[in-house]
Each structure stands twice: as C-alpha cells, then as structure tokens.
Specification:
Elements lengths: L4 E4 L2 E3 L7 E2 L1 E5 L2 E6 L1 H8 L5 E3 L4 E4 L1 E6 L1 H7 L3 E2 L8 H12 L8 E6 L12 H4 L8 E5 L4 E4 L1 H6 L12 E5 L5 E7 H7 L7 H17 L2 E9 L2 H12 L6 E7 H10 L11 E9 L29 H13 L4 E5 L2 H17 L8 E4 L5 H10 L2 E3 L4 H13 L10 H7 L16 H10 L16 H8 L1 H6 L17 E4 L16 E6 L2 E5 L2
Parallel strand pairs: 1-6, 2-7, 8-15, 9-10, 10-11, 15-16, 16-17, 17-18, 18-19, 19-20
Antiparallel strand pairs: 1-4, 2-3, 4-5, 7-21, 11-12, 12-14, 13-14, 21-22, 22-23
Helix pairs in contact: 2-7, 7-8, 10-11, 11-12, 15-16
C-alpha cells in the first residue's frame, strides 16, 4: 500500500527525548507506526511491506529549511553561476558574461547570482565599466550572494529608466564615482528597480521553477521548507496549483509579504496556520534592514572604515512598529528580516510593544537571520520567546565579508547556536538558498566546527554537538512553523518524513560532514529521492 515502508538496521536519530535512538522505523499509509528494533517495526508494519536495509547508515527526521527561496532557487538554475570558488576575479566574471552574450539573442537579459566581492582578487564589486565592453547589446544584472546588492550594465540601467540624475530610492542606493556618475552598483531597493524591468514570470514558469527547486531540496534531504516571501498572487496560485495536482515536491510554509497581503488576508479572516501538511500559510514578513556584505544592515556602531555609515532602515522605525502591531493583533506570526544589531534591537522593541498592547500566548514571532547580537539582545530574545532563524552556513561562506565590515570581534555571537542553547532559545536552521547553496550537510559542519570554507576558525566558542545541530534542522524547524505535533521527530503518529545519509553520520570527522551525501529522502512513507 502507498506509504507503507520499513527501515531496518540503521542508526536512527529520532530527536524524540522519550526514545533518542532506534534501529528500525515502520510506516503505514504515510505515518510512523513504530520506532524501535526490527522485530517491533516488522510487527507493526504487517506482512509483505517493503524494507530498506540501512546497513548502519544514519537516518533522522526529514530536514527542515526554515528560510529559503524555492522560486528563486528554481530560476537561479538557469542563471549564470558566479560562485567565488570558481570565479576568482572581476575579469573572470566579465569573461563569463561575454560567453553568455554569444548564446543569447541581442536584447535578451543576462542574469547572474552568487559573486562575493570580498573573495575576488580585486576585493571590489564589478561595475558597469567592467560589463559594458563585453555586453553592449544585452542588459545584464548580477547579484552578490546576499541578493541585497548587485551590478547592472548601462543597457540594463537605461531599460530601468535610471539616469545620472536619478535620486536614490527609499531604502536603496545607487553607487556613484567621485564625479557623480553611476557605477552600476545597486543596493537594496535600487537593485529591485532594475530587476523590476525584467518581464515577470508566468504562473506556469513559476510552477516549473518550483518543481526544479523541489528536486534540488529533496536531493539534499530537505522535506520541508519555508518560502521566504510571497510577493504576488500569481506566486501563490503556482503553489496552490502544484498542491492540487499532487506535484508540490516539499512541504512548504509560506511567508506572505505584509505590505502586499495583510489587508486582504485579514479581510478574509485568514491567519497563520491555515492550510494542510503540504502547504500552509505562515507569517507575514517585513524587512527592517539590508545585508552586511552590502553594508546596508542597520548597526548600532558604524561599519569599519566608514564612520558615517550605520546601514539602512527599510522603513522608519515607528512605521515598522505600527505594522507589527497590526499583524500581531490580527493573529499572525510575524517574521522580520533583521541582520544588524540596530535592526534586531528595533524588532525586539516592536515585538515587546505588540505583546504588551495585545497579550497573546505563544506568538512565536521570528527574527530572520538575526546575525549581529550581544548578550543583552540574546537575553531579550529568550525572554520574549522569539525565534531566530540563523543562516547555518553563512559564516562558512561569508566570514571574510563579515570581518571586513565589522572587524574581528563584533560578529562574535553571529548564528551562535551554543549561546542560543544555553538560554533555551529555539533557533531553526536555514540556508536562505539561493543566497548560498541548500547544502544542509555544510550547515551541520559549520555548526559543529565553526570553521569557514578555508578551514579558519569562526568564533569556535559557538560550536555545538552534532545531535544539537540535527535538532536545529528538525525539531526546531517544525517548532518555528507551529508543526512540532506532526513532524520534526520520529515517533508513532508523526508524518513519515525521513532523511537517510550515506553513512553513520556520527562516525564522520566533523570537518568532513559537509561532504556527506543523502542516500534516500522519504516523504509520507515513500522514497521520493534515491541516490544512484
């Protein structure tokens, strides 16, 4: 019968404190019916059920990516890959753009994602002056890994209607040279202006992108993901169409952009939690600041070498507080992008004020990324019961940019799982893909080792044991979406979602965890991915 399966002879990390370890799991009709030894599992499964011999491999609850962009992941698969591990200079990037122009008709957009100026030989962003000579007939826009800053060539700027005299938009900056000319570097809403000149994808194109990205998530063992921003109704229709057709690849928790959707949702009587085990309405989302790599995250103290730069507010603080209160009073969970300590302080102020004005038990308001904190901010997060959503591999990829922007000491507690755990703070793991690769194995390695891509220590005081790192990817992710009663642990009655690694994860050297592959991904008791 569909959803009937046995896993036997494994090292199963159940994440259930009542029974932390087992060697077998049985599923019937997509739900777990037994966790224990092989005899118990076979008795519960009944005769004739197919079995997978794990042969000592580690299995755990299906991994949960608490903040990613599946739509963007799907579209990014067709964009230029500007990964700094392969493109090491501005000249390399320009060369890739030049190649792309030969494969596209003049006038067609060329998009790329993933460069990191801090890891380029020139230690700077590309500019339009680098791109114009190789792309005179194509509009080009390239995004840094953080997706908060990018560069456009002159043709793209012209199509977006951006001229030398254009004023900086609210919440954004057009970089200029000493003579006032545009460099092509775009920060925050300035980047959005250029990207808005690209034709919006259709519902069918979005659905196809979601199916592509879903396969990528399943290949990495991810069975649940939070979509970090529904901006347009066509995006929601694409998700619903896939769900109705039974083609949605991973369970999805939808963050609805507050400004675009809150009034409509409230008018319909909707709130966080509406939906089913496959597609559920999540929090409403706001941005409070930008990114560290783009030096637009809002800080309490200036950026290194820029004494007048504290970063940007995406909206005036009092406006953000009013929006949070409105959403909170309407019964929504709120999720706010906040990276700098100034922004996180504002978010906590807003949550405290909302809870004081309209007390509500177990609101579980979230702080997306929650990067630069100190002891005082951590204590406030714990007292509020707010949920940080750290990028678990951000320091692996971005250490250089963080140190360049803040110096060695200020990022001390960034994504600090040990400090969260000591305070009882429930933090949920995320990739923020396609900002960085989905790669939960790299996230696990980073949490356990606190080392970057080059093996350098990254404030190792915040390292945690593998068991706790897995908890951040399973139990805590389910808690962040109010779904701990149905997933996140392997126990009877829970959804039959499991990730099976290629080996005994607990026997792998910590520095090699990022190389471990997933052999099987199981959803509703059925194998939906098997590594060949």
């Amino acid at each position: 019968m569909s959803g009937d399966l046995l896993l036997v002879n494994g090292r199963i990390a159940t994440m259930d404190p009542a029974q932390p370890r087992a060697s077998a799991v049985a599923f019937r009709q997509g739900r777990i019916v037994a966790v224990g030894d092989e005899a118990e599992a076979r008795a519960a499964a009944g005769p004739g059920v197919a079995a997978i011999d794990l042969a000592g491999r580690t299995a755990c609850p299906g991994l949960n990516d608490a903040h990613a962009h599946p739509m963007s992941v799907g579209f990014a698969l067709g964009d230029l890959d500007l990964n700094p591990s392969t493109l090491r200079s501005v000249a390399d990037i320009a060369g890739l753009v030049a190649t792309a122009t030969r494969n596209k008709a003049p006038g067609r957009w060329i998009q790329g994602r993933g460069y990191d100026h801090a890891r380029l030989a020139e230690r700077r962003h590309p500019t339009r002056h680098d791109l114009d000579p190789v792309s005179p007939d194509h509009p080009v826009v390239l995004m840094r890994m953080c997706h908060h800053i990018g560069v456009a060539n002159s043709r793209a700027l012209a199509l977006a209607g951006i001229t030398r005299d254009a004023p900086d938009p609210d919440g954004g900056v057009f970089d200029r040279d000493a003579g006032g000319e545009l460099t092509g570097i775009l920060r925050e809403t300035a980047l959005t202006m250029v990207r808005s000149a690209i034709a919006a994808p259709t519902e069918a194109e979005i659905a196809a992108a979601l199916e592509r990205s879903g396969r990528a998530f399943l290949e990495q063992g991810v069975t649940s993901v939070a979509e970090a921003g529904i901006h347009d109704p066509v995006e929601l229709r694409a998700y619903q169409g896939l769900r109705l057709a039974g083609k949605l690849p991973v369970r999805t928790y939808l963050m609805m952009m507050l400004d675009e959707h809150l009034d409509a949702l409230v008018s319909l009587g909707m709130r966080t939690g509406f939906g089913d085990d496959w597609l559920r309405l999540g929090p409403v989302k706001l941005f409070s600041d930008g990114s560290l790599g783009g030096r637009t995250a809002r800080l309490r103290q200036p950026y290194e070498g820029q004494p007048d730069n504290l970063g940007l507010w995406m909206m005036p603080p009092e406006v953000l507080k009013a929006k949070v209160l409105k959403a909170h009073q309407a019964g929504f969970q709120v999720a706010i992008h906040a990276i700098g300590d100034g922004a996180i302080e504002l978010v906590l102020d807003a949550y405290e004020a909302a809870l004081a004005a309209a007390p509500r038990p177990d609101a579980r308001h979230r702080i997306e990324h929650c990067s630069i904190v100190d002891d005082g901010l951590l204590d406030r997060i714990a007292a509020l019961g707010a949920i940080p959503i750290p990028g678990t591999s951000f320091l692996y990829h971005f250490r250089d940019a963080y140190v360049d922007a803040l110096g060695e000491e200020r990022p001390r507690f960034a994504y600090g799982l040990a400090s969260y755990t000591r305070r009882g703070i429930i933090a949920a793991a995320s990739s923020d893909a396609p900002v960085v690769p989905i790669a939960p194995a790299v996230g696990l390695q980073t949490m356990v080792t606190r080392r970057d891509y080059d093996g350098r220590p990254v404030w190792p005081e915040e390292a945690v044991a593998l068991e706790e790192a897995l908890r951040v990817y399973t139990v805590n992710g389910a808690y962040a979406s109010f779904e701990e009663g149905s997933k996140g642990t392997l126990a009877p009655g829970m959804l039959g979602d499991v990730t099976v690694f290629e080996t005994d994860l607990f026997a792998v050297p910590a520095t090699a965890l990022g190389e471990v592959k997933v052999d099987y991904t199981i959803v509703d008791g059925e194998v939906v991915y098997a590594r060949r």
